[in-house]
Description:
The chain is an alpha/beta fold. The chain has 2 domains: 2-82 and 278-298, Rossmann fold (3-Layer(aba) Sandwich), CATH 3.40.50.720; 84-269, NAD(P)-binding Rossmann-like Domain (Rossmann fold). The chain contains 11 helices and 12 strands. It has a 7-stranded parallel sheet, with helices on both faces. A 5-stranded parallel sheet has the order 2-1-3-4-5. Helix 3 crosses helix 6. The mean pLDDT is 97. D-malate (MLT) is lined by residues 38-39, 58-60, 83, 274-275. Residues 38-39, 58-60, 83, 274-275 line the site of D-malate (MLT). It comes from Thiolapillus brandeum. Residues 95-274 form the D-isomer specific 2-hydroxyacid dehydrogenase NAD-binding domain.
Amino acid sequence: MYKILTLNNISAAGLDRLPRESYEVASEIAHPDAILLRSYKMHDMDIPETVQAIGRAGAGVNNIPVDQMTEKGIPVFNAPGANSNAVKELVIAGMLMAARNIGPAWKFATSLEGEDAEITRAVESGKKNFVGFELPGRTLGVVGLGAIGVRICNAAHDLGMNVVGYDPSITVKSAWKLKADVEQALSVDDLLSRSDFVTFHVPLNEHTANMINEERIKLMPDNAVVLNFARNGIVDDEAVVKALDDGKLYAYVCDFPSNLLKDHPRCLTLPHLGASTREAEENCAIMVADEIRAWLEDGNIVNS
Length: 304
Ligand code: MLT
């Protein structure tokens, strides 16, 4: 019997891939053979000696001490691409929300009090503050041309946007499943100088931390929009807030709330919802459960 320790809720669709007759799965279990998790931060955890594999039902693995596991020969599996449609949809929604001032407009609409006639009058005079702009003809810069970045390029192109892409390790020409006509940027700076919107789809590491900072914001066209649905720390939030206050940037859409951002009228923050759809949770759980099973039962490595 294989024992699987779950550190977060894992979609039943994934757990169903581990047959009951040979797998015991629980959130508390002695001597586990493998660990399944989503966002639980494992860095300070005492990892049981019996663990032979770790599976993250998501793409990023920065909540797992991967180097330490690799030294011990323990593979860390993840689910690349399994939630990429969910993230793409929210990034597109984020662009539309920023362009149409949905955050401040929603706050305005829900703050109105009084009789319906009074509300109607307030709407008539207040709505002029929320006039937005449309996406066709605007340029979206996509940093990171993996499964998520490529889907966003394709969708933005379908919405009539110009798309410019940059990835430190692949070119636009070699990006997998990229159907849209995407211009190749030569560097992050080059991409920023052309982007009315910029979105990041890279892991957080020493090369990507504060990838967008005060100096780089200056390269962007006026009234640009910054989106961060990747990892907290890729965008220097303080620099972005300053640029919003100076009128340089139009809006910041960030999937990581913080005290700095929460009351800013031009910041739209979300509680890391990019991958939070039923479909994505199921896809990730299925992929990672299959990977764990292939490793435990046959010693096969898929996607680690
Ligand atoms: C991922 O790494 O898959 C996404 O950021 C979503 C998540 O953290 O679960």
